[in-house]
Amino acid sequence: MPELLDVEGFRRFAERHVAGRAIRSVHVLDRELVRNRSARSLQSALAGQRFGTARRHGKWLILPAGEAELLMHFGMTGALAWAPNDADRHRHDRLVVVFDGGELRYNNMRRFGGVWLARDADERELVTGSLGPDAATLGPEKFAALLDARRGGIKAALMDQHLIAGLGNLMSDEILWRARVHPEASVGSLTPHRRQKIYHELRAVIGESSRYGRVPHGRRWLTRMRDDRDASCPRCGSRLSRTRVAGRTACWCPRCQRR
């Protein structure tokens, strides 16, 4: 599932290829992936406009175009590609925005996520829901205040987009593994020192990963090991454990992350 870092990579990609370009036409290749408008309405709203500076909030990519915004969510398999106008299209391309000299293609194999059109901030919130502050811009005081008002487990809290926008399964596991905190530990049980450690590791994971546009599979990263059949902790070598937390598979080290 694309998370903050993946979508930040898409934001940079869009900024590099389409910012300031005039939209010649829009081809909707999968009408069901245009979630809140008809294909014709989307095409009419975008054609002839220029994309402004690409933005991101959490897992959402926001592409301003005139008085509207094109909102993209990437689900599990979404991605962006840039191609020459005459290049063959991929069978999983769902939306193609055509410019002079190239095309921006929204590709999504499993068809989760999609694209929306918003006319203003209120309409954008109707689409995205009420999002918490973006994890990449979250300060320590705000992070502490958010946890003070939260009950339940810490991993579920980190993944709650209404609380903190942008963190998903991989990043929350990586952060908690580095902080040596069990994913099911209740927020209320965490000492101030533990909370500060989680925040420190949140900033470290985002900072170290930002240049890659994804959570990297470094030698000392939990992410590199978690999908192995007999996955072991990169820190202590213990066999990793798994359970379901907030509908996702949490991965942790039972030795490093004791309850």
Taken together, the total number of domains comes to 2
Q: Any guess at the CATH architecture of the largest domain? A: Alpha-Beta Barrel
Please report the total strand number as a whole number.
Answer: 10
| CATH topology-level fold name of the largest domain | N-terminal domain of MutM-like DNA repair proteins
Approximately how much beta-strand content do the residues carry?
A: 15-25%
Question: Could you give a short description of this structure?
Answer:
The protein is 31% helix and 21% strand. With 259 residues, the chain is α+β, with helices and mostly antiparallel strands. It has two domains: 4-128, N-terminal domain of MutM-like DNA repair proteins; 135-252, Orthogonal Bundle (Helicase, Ruva Protein, domain 3).
Could you walk me through the main structural features you see in this protein, from its secondary elements to its overall organization?
This protein has helices at residues 4-18, 39-46, 121-128, 140-148, 154-159, 169-179, 192-209, 222-225, and strands at residues 25-28, 55-57, 60-65, 68-73, 78-83, 93-99, 102-108, 114-118, 241-245, 248-252. By secondary structure, the chain is an alpha+beta fold. The chain has 2 domains: 4-128, MutM-like, N-terminal (N-terminal domain of MutM-like DNA repair proteins), CATH 3.20.190.10; 135-252, Helicase, Ruva Protein, domain 3 (Orthogonal Bundle). The strands form 3 sheets. A 4-stranded antiparallel beta sheet has the order 1-6-7-5. A 4-stranded antiparallel beta sheet has the order 2-3-4-8, with helices on both faces. The two termini are 27 Å apart.
